[in-house]
Amino acid sequence: MTPEETVRSYYDALRAGEALAPFFVESPSTVKVGIGERLVGYAEVARGLREQTRTTEDWTVESRDLRVVERDGGAAVADETTLSWYDTDAFAERSFETRWSGTLLPVDDGWAFAGMHVSAATELDR
Predict the structure, then answer these.
(1) Can you give the residue range of the structural domain that contains 36?
(2) Reduced 3-state DSSP string for 54-91
């Protein structure tokens, strides 16, 4: 699987409510920054993703500008997406225009995120 296919598979897994931790490098230096959290280390990332999957459903991920660059044994990714989901704890719909960036490293069976950053766009960003 290529880095681009890995990102698209991650989006598919998010939409389907599947486990997301396998998309991350199992390392204490793995980092995932989301709209409302910063998780450091694979164990913390996996815990945060399990909680996210437990408390959300009906994800929509609309990718608009996925860019991938492979270089020197790694890959950098960036995208603009519309994210929306249902928050089962708050009984509320959530929706954000987001920007994604990250790095992927090769692993035995393809590629995995060493770092991921997702932020919500603001009026000043558009």
Answers:
(1) 3-125
(2) HHEEEEEEEECCCEEEEECCEEEEEEEEEEEEEECCCC
